[in-house]
From TrEMBL:
The lineage of its organism: Bacteria, Pseudomonadati, Pseudomonadota, Betaproteobacteria, Burkholderiales. Keywords: Cytoplasm, Lyase, Pyruvate, Ubiquinone biosynthesis. One of its GO terms (molecular function) is chorismate lyase activity. Pathway: Cofactor biosynthesis; ubiquinone biosynthesis. Substrate binds at residues 61, 99, 164. It is an enzyme of class 4 (lyase). Removes the pyruvyl group from chorismate, with concomitant aromatization of the ring, to provide 4-hydroxybenzoate (4HB) for the ubiquinone pathway. It comes from Pelomonas cellulosilytica. It catalyses: chorismate = 4-hydroxybenzoate + pyruvate. This is Probable chorismate pyruvate-lyase.
Length: 180
């Protein structure tokens, strides 16, 4: 397969609604593998997206989304630590359930536009994701896995940023419409 380009992943990068629900429609078994959930320092892009000060802590959740055992998406969500005692407190007890359970079943939550982004092959986020992918799957992350999207969800004035990095295997799949 050739390099996964923005055009070849366009449907996934622009698909509205729940990514988890769209992925679940691709196979028999949809799985969320939690790689890490805990407190971490702000990253520049997260800080900017969440409108946060230069210093502080976020609560980060990093996962791999799998369909029928095949890893297809690496995702990272980040929220200011204070928000996990307020509007985003349910994030703490989410476990291996999809984040979609919090984001799409509450009419008070609003989502920003989806922002596609090509990661630098040697940038911090890509390297971090590749290390986690290798540890979790036993396989190296495809060098073609460069396209991501991010958006910001708002609830009660508190913001949550979600970033999803797509495996090139999704090029062969259509996102379809999820059941809400």
């Amino acid at each position: 397969m050739g390099i996964a380009t923005r055009d070849s992943l366009r449907d996934w990068l622009q698909a509205p609604g729940s990514l988890s629900r769209r992925l679940a429609r691709l196979g028999q078994c949809f799985d969320v593998q939690v790689l890490r959930q805990g407190v971490a320092p702000f990253r520049a892009l997260e800080r900017a997206a969440l409108g946060l000060p230069p210093r502080g802590l976020t609560v980060v959740r990093e996962v791999i989304l799998r369909v029928d055992g095949q890893p297809l998406v690496w995702a990272r969500s980040a929220v200011h630590q204070r928000a996990t005692t307020g509007p985003w407190r349910a994030l703490k007890g989410l476990g291996s359930r999809p984040l979609a359970h919090l984001l799409y079943d509450d009419d008070r939550i609003r989502r920003s536009e989806l922002q596609p982004r090509r990661l630098s092959r040697h940038g911090h986020t890509r390297r971090h994701a590749a290390r986690q992918w290798q540890a979790a799957t036993g396989q190296a992350m495809s060098p073609q896995m460069l396209w991501s999207r991010h958006s910001v969800f708002s609830r009660g004035g508190a913001l949550l940023r979600v970033m999803e990095l797509f495996a090139p295997e999704l090029v062969r799949q259509r996102p379809g419409r999820p059941k809400h």
